[in-house]
Amino acid sequence: MKIAILSRNPKLYSTQRLVVAAQQRGHEVRVLDVLRCYMNIATHKPQLHYKGVALEDFDAVIPRIGASVTFYGAAVLRQFEMMGVLPLNESVAITRSRDKLRSLQLLSRKGIGLPLTGFAHKPDDIKDLIRMVGGAPLVIKLLEGTQGIGVVLAETHQAAESVIEAFMGLRVNILVQEFIAEAGGADLRCLVIGDKVIAAMKRQGKEGEFRSNLHRGGSASLIKITPEERSTAVRAAQTMGLNVAGVDLLRSNHGPVVMEVNSSPGLEGIETATGKDIADTIIQFLEKRQSELAGKSSGTRTRGKG
Length: 306
Ligand code: ADP
Prior knowledge:
This protein is an alpha+beta fold and 306 residues long. Helix content is 37%, strand content 27%. The protein has three domains: 2-87, 3-Layer(aba) Sandwich (Rossmann fold), CATH 3.40.50.20; 116-179, ATP-grasp fold, A domain (Dna Ligase, domain 1), CATH 3.30.1490; 182-265, 2-Layer Sandwich (D-amino Acid Aminotransferase, Chain A, domain 1), CATH 3.30.470.20.
């Protein structure tokens, strides 16, 4: 196959691992900076150009689109899709999962375990909002935050009111969530490919920290997950429409609850913690998808002829 990897930085661990895995399996790979791709929206022949040259003949595209370039990245990926290139994850699924509010609404509709969560922009009655999610202690999050930034634990009702007021003053959308104290500052990252969790790790926040983010000094270790956690992770990825996803779960008293579904999960932490070659599994998955699609289209042609 000829594979494009959309990544802003070819030196990133995940990008490099995918390049090596694809090459080892005999594919041709090219890393493209998504912001440098430009396109024309023509009825018959949609095109993508890069550094003055048309991008042609790609069979598959692996999007590694950072949160800050979601809008343009999704447009470039959509253009690849219009040109008939197979995406590892579809643009619509990526956009869906990047919207925290929309994601939680979709997951709740499917009956997937979630922490009790409220959303607000400018609530007139903050006390009621706090009551809605069961009172303090609670977690308040900026809708646009990543890597644990903008995630605050308010231990008392008073603290919760002050933090909500402060965020409201900044005119940002916030999410107010039941605090899962029993998770003990740990979460589970489940790497889903297709309909399987192929690797899982536990991330534990450093001493005294309720956030488990590795960027905040958390540490990762191998963990065996339960069948319920496994099926929750797979269902969460499928609800988003993602073929490959990093699903973050907390172990709560009422079963596994989904924190987030990530469409470009980093490979470094999970490959190191589990010793698994996840990049290779991703490329194998793409190969399988491509041969399934090829089988389907030749099947259609045969039927058409008959
Ligand atoms: P980000 O997307 O910025 O990483 P998260 O919502 O994933 O933000 O929160 C960061 C971390 O904080 C989580 O991985 C988890 O360890 C902890 N955390 C977040 N929400 C809760 C909660 N409701 N209860 C307990 N811990 C939480």
